[in-house]
Amino acid sequence: MNLLSTILLMAPQQQGGQQSGWWSFLPLILIIVVFYFFFIRPQMKRSKDQKKFRESLQKGQKIITIGGIHGRIVEIQDTTVTIEVENGVRLRIEKSAVAIDNTQTIENK
């Protein structure tokens, strides 16, 4: 915030001590830019990466669902995935419920 106050203090003043119209919008513009780069852009990148991951799912791949269920992909359809958990139990889940690849968590640790 120190940089913002410095910029505002350096702004040219009109007669009567009022700031020009453009300079009065500078704080709002800076807030929008900061909000975009720290919140919107990273969220869009995460969403894009998740979509790419879900489109690249393959049969036999180990996954973890959003609910924390670990399994191996047995069958892939348009919007659903059938996974096999322990002892041959099969579950059909939505692709949107697939969180991460099991091998990615091992490599990142």
Please give a structural write-up.
By secondary structure, the chain is of the alpha+beta class. 46% of the residues lie in helices and 23% in strands. It is built from 4 helices and 5 strands. A 5-stranded antiparallel β-sheet has the order 4-3-2-1-5. Strand 3 (80-84) and strand 4 (90-94) form a beta hairpin. The longest helix is centred in the middle third of the chain and has 30 residues, at 26-55. The radius of gyration is 25 Å and the shape is rod-shaped. The two termini are 36 Å apart. Residues 105-109 have low confidence and may be disordered.
Observed structural traits:
109 residues; five-stranded antiparallel β-sheet
Short description:
This protein is of the alpha+beta class.
